[in-house]
Design goal:
InterPro entries: Oxidoreductase-like_N. The chain is built from one helix and no strands. It has about 60 residues and is mainly α.
């Protein structure tokens, strides 16, 4: 096993995480430059940011009351 955990989408109690990127509307017309180009990269950047926030949260001790 590689030890890599699959991505887990945010739960409703994780409201402080950034919102999922909106998928642009595609006309499926075979355009030379589609509005969807770059969207998979936006989703991956979002996943990376969510994981960074979770990792930071896991090592940061809770604040005192």
């Amino acid at each position: 096993m590689s030890g890599v955990q699959p991505f887990r989408y945010p739960t409703p109690d994780e409201t402080d995480l950034p919102p999922y990127p909106d998928q642009p509307d595609c006309c499926n017309g075979g355009c030379a430059v589609c509005v969807l180009e770059g969207w998979p990269e936006e989703v991956q950047a979002w996943k990376d940011k969510v994981e960074q926030i979770r990792a930071k949260r896991a090592v940061t001790p809770p604040s005192a009351p």
